[in-house]
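Why do we care about 3D structure at all? Because function follows from shape, and shape follows, mostly, from sequence. That is the central idea of this module. The next example makes it concrete: a single protein chain, its amino acid sequence, and then its structure expressed as tokens.
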Amino acid sequence: MRSRTTCANTGKRVSARGIVLGASLFALHVAAPVLANDEPAYDVLELLADMEQAWLEIGDYSKLVDKTERLVNGDVTQQTVFIKFRQPNQYYMTVLEGPNKGGELIYPAREGSELAVAHAGGFKGGFARFLQATVILRKVVPTEFRLDDPTLGEWQHQTATDTSMGATIARIAGNVRRAIESGEGDISVERNCDLEDNCLLKLNFSLPSDVGDKHVVREGETLWTIAAAYGRPMYVIWYNNPDVRGPRKAKPGQTLFIPRYYSARGTVWVSPDTLMPERIEIFDANDELYERYVYRDVRLNVGLTDLDFDPENPDYRF
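And the structure:
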């Protein structure tokens, strides 16, 4: 594997193949070239460590996400979602544009719960709220769901708790470090500036798509349980095994391919100020776009309150 630091402004590149392994830690010895403005460039592991440290200093945030995701059947969906997050693990989401427009979700439904409270958007959501208002029907119209419920988690790449910036950073860092430890792939960091000299750090990676494990499905297993056992996102396993008709429809005796890496190729644009991702593009083994996330109007440490995660909030429609 080649891991390198690249300076887009100067054209200088330093490559490193040596990896030091010790006490389960590893580091790339890559010199830090100097950019035109005398700022040192990042190496790969330094950038990941700084992103992880920056995340530890964030207590809450709000953001808009423009999502593009390719589904198992080849369809491509696009949504704009508004998200609020508060440590350690509270979420509010609403779909502003695209499929399920008007849908909302809060996780957890209440303190100590492992369920989310959610409703669909559009006519379906409105009808469900009408039925909920009818006491005699309230128990047959669910409003609380497990995160792996088909209603919530089988038509998008991540469940609610996988969408935080912390989870995103962990996913990126885990794949890059796994590649470094395995000596596979091609990973680089460069400084990317536009004509107005607005600069971002650009993490590029290209990883082998044909390495991984074979798993023979056992009785009672689902793609959710298999994904948890291997520490991989469920949708990545499903996407790489499109013959499975659904996350709960893997058949005993069926052999699945469990990829070692999240994707074959990708780029993450990182703010040098906040060290948070601003844009992510991921490509599959056929070099087709698997997902794109663009983060806008990101506001960090804004002081969100309990009301922001309360279904009784008058601004919400639960």
